[in-house]
TrEMBL record:
<feature type="transmembrane region" description="Helical">
    <location>
        <begin position="317"/>
        <end position="336"/>
    </location>
</feature>
<keyword id="KW-0472">Membrane</keyword>
<feature type="transmembrane region" description="Helical">
    <location>
        <begin position="363"/>
        <end position="379"/>
    </location>
</feature>
<feature type="transmembrane region" description="Helical">
    <location>
        <begin position="644"/>
        <end position="677"/>
    </location>
</feature>
<feature type="transmembrane region" description="Helical">
    <location>
        <begin position="506"/>
        <end position="526"/>
    </location>
</feature>
<feature type="transmembrane region" description="Helical">
    <location>
        <begin position="83"/>
        <end position="101"/>
    </location>
</feature>
<feature type="transmembrane region" description="Helical">
    <location>
        <begin position="391"/>
        <end position="410"/>
    </location>
</feature>
<feature type="transmembrane region" description="Helical">
    <location>
        <begin position="52"/>
        <end position="71"/>
    </location>
</feature>
<keyword id="KW-1133">Transmembrane helix</keyword>
<feature type="transmembrane region" description="Helical">
    <location>
        <begin position="27"/>
        <end position="46"/>
    </location>
</feature>
<keyword id="KW-0812">Transmembrane</keyword>
<feature type="transmembrane region" description="Helical">
    <location>
        <begin position="589"/>
        <end position="609"/>
    </location>
</feature>
<dbReference type="Pfam" id="PF06808">
    <property type="entry name" value="DctM"/>
</dbReference>
<dbReference type="InterPro" id="IPR010656">
    <property type="entry name" value="DctM"/>
</dbReference>
<feature type="transmembrane region" description="Helical">
    <location>
        <begin position="616"/>
        <end position="638"/>
    </location>
</feature>
<feature type="transmembrane region" description="Helical">
    <location>
        <begin position="192"/>
        <end position="214"/>
    </location>
</feature>
<protein>
    <submittedName>
        <fullName>C4-dicarboxylate TRAP transporter large permease protein DctM</fullName>
    </submittedName>
</protein>
Length: 689
C-alpha cells in the first residue's frame, strides 16, 4: 500500500468509518446515507417539523450508519457486519425513533417525567449513544460523559450512596437513575436533544452537505490549481500555494484530516521536491489545514453552535471571523517565507505550474456558487429581493445546495457535449450528486453523535451545579488571576483535543470553562460593554472568550501526541508523525497568540472599530506582531536570530498585539532595529536546517 493510500485509509476510518460492507449491505448503507441527506433537505425546506422529531430522526440515521460502517476495533471485520452490530443498530435506531412517535406524550402528556417504558428506552438510548460515540469519535468523549453521569449519580440521595470529598460533595445530593434519564431524554433543553444536536440537525448538516457536493464537483482540485498558478513560482511557492489552497479548501471541508488528504496528496510532494524537509512539508500542510475551520463563510460545526449558544446571528459570526482568518493565514504565509529563506529555496519553474487564466475560467462556476451563498447569508433572498432581507443560515445553505446540484448537472452535460456523449454527461452528473449526498451524510455521523453526547454533559452540568465547582477549582488553581486562568483553560482544551473532536471540545469549554473565564475577566476590569442583537444583549468579553475556546479547539486537532492531521500528513510525506506534529504545533503557536489577542482586544473581531483607517492600522500592527512572534519561534529574519534577538522580537510581538498606538510604535521600532541590525551590521548568515 502506498503512503497516499495509507492517508486515504486513515481519512476513510476517521471520516467515513473503516468498514466497507459488500453486496446488498453496501446498497443499504448508500440508501440510508442518501435518505438521511434527502430527509435533512426536506426538513430544512418545510421548516415546520417538531424540534424533537427532527433531532431524534437525525440521531436515528446516525445510529444506523455508525453500527453498519464503524467497527468496534481494528481487528473487527472490514467487509462483513457481525450479527451483534445488527442487533445494536436496530435497538439504537428504535430507541431514537421512540422519541419521534412518542413526542407528544413525552413533551405534553407526561411533562418530562417518564413512565417505566420511557426510562427503559432512555437508558438504552444513552448507553448505545456512548457506544456509538466510542466507535465514531474514539473513547475520550464517551468516557468524559460517563464520568459526568457517574458524578451525577453519586451522593447521599443518589443511586450511588457515597459522600464525595470537599467541594465535590457540596455541589449536589446525587440523582437517581430515573431522574437522570428524565433530564437526558424527556425534554428538548439541556439533554441529548438539546442545543448541540439541534444545531447539528437544523444547520450544520446542510452546510456539510454543501461542502461534500462542492468537493465532489471538483472544487478542491480547482482551489489547489488556482493557488499554485498564483504563488507556485515565488520563493517558497509550493508551501505558500499549499496554504492558500488549504484556506480555500477550508470553505469546502470543516475537517482538518480531510483537508490534509485532499490537498496534501499533491502539495506535500511538491514542497518536498522544492527542498522542505518531509516533516516541515507535512507540518505546513497540517497548520494550514487545521486553520481551514477559521475560514468564513463555512467554519465548521462549532461556529454554528457558538452562534446559537451566544444568541448571535451566524452572519455576524462570519463578520467577526474575517480579520482573524486573514491574520492566521497571512502570518502562516510569513512562516513559509521565513522557512524558505532559511533553507535557501526558490519557487517552482513556471512551466510546471497551471495557467492562471485557464484555471480560473475552468472553475469560475465554483466561485459563483460561493458568491451566491454569501449573498444569501449577508444580503438578501435572491428569489424575493427586497422582501425578507438575508436568509437564515440553513435556508441559505439549502438554496445553495439546489443551485450547486444544477451547476453539477450543467458542468457534466457540457463535458459530455464536448465528448459527443450528452447521456454520459447526464449520468456522470447524477452520479456525482448521489455520491455527494452519501459523503455529506457519512461526514455527519461523527458530528451527530458528538453533539448528542455533549448534550449529556450539558444536562449533568444543569442538575449538579458542577460548573460552579469547576469555577471555584479554576479560581483556586489560577489564584484568581485572569491570565493564569486563560493559560489553564488553554491547557484543558489542548488536553481534551487529544481525543475529542473540535465541535465537542468547544461545547465542553463553552459550557464549563467560558462562564468562569467571563467572571474572572469581569473582575479583572475587562468590561468591553455589550452588543445588541434583536431583543438580546451579549457581552463583548463573552464573545471574545468563546472565540478563544473555539480557536484552541481547532489548535488541539494538530497538537501531539494525538494529532490525526499530523499522522495523515506524515503518511503522505513519509516523515516521522511525531516530529511532524511537533513542528506543526510550533507553526500553530500563531493561532494561540491570535486567541489571546482577541480576548484582550475585541477590535481584532472588528468590534468597536470606528473607521476604515483604524481597521487597517489594527490589521497591519497585528500582522506585524504575529510576524515578530513567528521570527521568535522559528529563529530567522534576515539571517539566523540568536536567543537575545528572539527575546527582543518576542517583546516586539507583545507590544504590537497590544491595543494602543504608542505600544505599536515601540513594537515597530524594535522590529526594525532587529532587521536593520541583521541586514547591515551582522550581515546575512547562511542558515540550514
Amino acid at each position: 500500500m502506498s503512503e497516499v493510500d495509507k492517508a486515504q485509509q486513515l481519512l476513510q476510518e476517521v471520516e467515513f468509518g473503516g468498514r466497507k460492507p459488500q453486496g446488498w449491505v453496501r446498497w443499504l448503507v448508500l440508501g440510508l446515507a442518501v435518505g438521511w441527506s434527502l430527509f435533512q433537505m426536506y426538513a430544512t425546506y418545510v421548516g415546520t417539523l417538531n424540534e424533537l422529531v427532527w433531532r431524534a430522526t437525525h440521531l436515528a440515521f446516525a445510529f444506523a450508519l455508525v453500527f453498519l460502517v464503524y467497527p468496534f476495533g481494528r481487528r473487527s471485520s472490514r467487509r462483513r457486519v457481525p450479527w451483534f452490530d445488527w442487533i445494536l443498530g436496530v435497538v439504537a435506531v428504535g430507541s431514537a425513533l421512540y422519541a419521534v412517535f412518542e413526542y407528544r406524550g413525552i413533551l405534553e402528556e407526561r411533562g418530562g417525567f417518564g413512565n417505566p417504558t420511557d426510562v427503559l428506552v432512555a437508558s438504552s438510548t444513552v448507553v448505545l449513544l456512548l457506544l456509538a460515540a466510542w466507535r465514531a469519535i474514539g473513547p475520550a468523549m464517551p468516557v468524559i460523559a460517563g464520568l459526568f453521569m457517574l458524578f451525577a449519580l453519586t451522593g447521599p440521595a443518589g443511586l450511588i450512596k457515597l459522600e464525595l470529598p470537599g467541594i465535590l460533595g457540596e455541589l449536589h445530593a446525587g440523582a437517581t437513575w430515573r431522574s437522570l434519564m428524565n433530564q437526558l431524554f424527556m425534554n428538548t433543553n439541556d439533554s441529548i436533544w438539546g442545543t448541540p444536536i439541534g444545531v447539528s440537525a437544523e444547520t450544520v448538516f446542510v452546510f456539510v452537505l454543501f461542502g461534500a457536493l462542492l468537493d465532489r464537483a471538483g472544487a478542491g482540485q480547482f482551489f489547489t490549481d488556482l493557488a499554485y498558478s498564483l504563488l507556485g513560482g515565488v520563493r517558497g511557492g509550493p508551501a505558500k500555494a499549499s496554504i492558500i489552497a488549504s484556506a480555500l479548501n477550508g470553505i469546502v471541508s470543516g475537517s482538518s484530516v480531510s483537508n490534509v488528504v485532499t490537498g496534501g496528496n499533491f502539495t506535500i510532494s511538491t514542497m518536498i521536491r522544492a527542498g522542505y524537509t518531509r516533516e516541515k512539508a507535512g507540518a505546513i500542510e497540517v497548520a494550514s489545514s487545521s486553520n481551514g475551520q477559521l475560514m468564513p463563510p463555512v467554519m465548521g460545526a462549532a461556529a454554528f453552535i457558538m452562534a446559537d449558544l451566544l444568541g448571535v446571528p451566524y452572519p455576524q459570526i462570519i463578520l467577526f471571523a474575517i480579520l482573524p482568518a486573514i491574520l492566521a493565514y497571512g502570518s502562516l504565509l510569513v512562516v513559509a517565507d521565513l522557512e524558505a529563506a532559511k533553507l535557501g529555496l526558490r519557487g517552482m519553474p513556471r512551466s510546471e505550474l497551471p495557467d492562471f487564466g485557464k484555471t480560473l475560467r475552468g472553475g469560475l462556476h465554483y466561485l459563483l456558487v460561493l458568491a451566491f451563498l454569501l449573498y444569501c447569508l449577508l444580503f438578501d433572498d435572491p428569489f424575493r429581493a427586497g422582501i425578507n432581507g438575508p436568509l437564515t443560515p440553513n435556508t441559505s445553505a439549502l438554496y445553495t445546495v439546489f443551485v450547486l446540484m444544477g451547476v453539477i448537472v450543467l458542468q457534466e452535460l457540457y463535458r459530455g457535449w464536448r465528448g459527443n456523449d450528452l447521456l454520459l454527461g447526464l449520468r456522470s452528473g447524477g452520479q456525482m450528486i448521489v455520491e455527494g449526498l452519501e459523503n455529506g451524510a457519512r461526514n455527519m455521523v461523527g458530528i451527530a453523535v458528538a453533539t448528542a453526547v455533549a448534550g449529556i454533559i450539558v444536562g449533568v452540568v444543569l442538575i449538579t451545579n458542577v460548573g460552579t465547582g469547576l469555577a471555584d477549582i479554576m479560581r483556586t488553581l489560577s489564584f484568581g488571576n485572569f491570565i493564569a486562568a486563560l493559560v489553564l483553560a488553554q491547557l484543558i482544551s489542548l488536553f481534551l483535543g487529544m481525543g475529542v473532536p473540535t465541535t465537542a471540545n468547544y461545547i465542553i469549554m463553552a459550557t464549563l470553562i467560558a462562564p468562569t473565564l467571563f467572571k474572572l475577566g469581569t473582575e479583572a476590569g475587562l468590561d468591553y460593554g455589550s452588543l445588541s442583537f434583536g431583543t438580546s444583549e451579549v457581552a463583548i468579553l463573552l464573545i471574545c472568550i468563546n472565540f478563544f475556546a473555539f480557536y484552541f479547539g481547532i489548535m488541539a486537532d494538530s497538537t501531539p501526541p494525538v494529532a490525526l492531521a499530523a499522522y495523515a500528513a506524515a503518511a503522505i510525506s513519509k516523515g516521522d508523525p511525531f516530529k511532524t506534529g511537533v513542528q506543526g504545533f510550533v507553526y500553530e503557536l500563531r493561532t494561540a497568540l491570535l486567541a489571546y489577542m482577541i480576548v484582550f482586544d475585541p477590535k481584532i473581531l472588528l468590534i468597536g472599530v470606528g473607521s476604515f483607517g483604524e481597521g487597517l492600522w489594527i490589521a497591519a500592527s497585528a500582522l506585524l506582531g504575529m510576524t515578530a512572534f513567528s521570527v521568535a519561534t522559528i529563529g530567522y529574519l534576515a539571517g539566523n536570530v540568536n536567543w537575545l534577538l528572539r527575546l527582543v522580537m518576542l517583546a516586539s510581538a507583545l507590544l504590537l498585539v497590544s491595543s494602543g498606538y504608542v505600544s505599536d510604535l515601540v513594537g515597530v521600532a524594535l522590529f526594525a532595529a532587529v532587521y536593520l541590525l541583521q541586514r547591515f551590521v551582522l550581515g546575512r548568515r547562511p542558515a540550514q536546517g
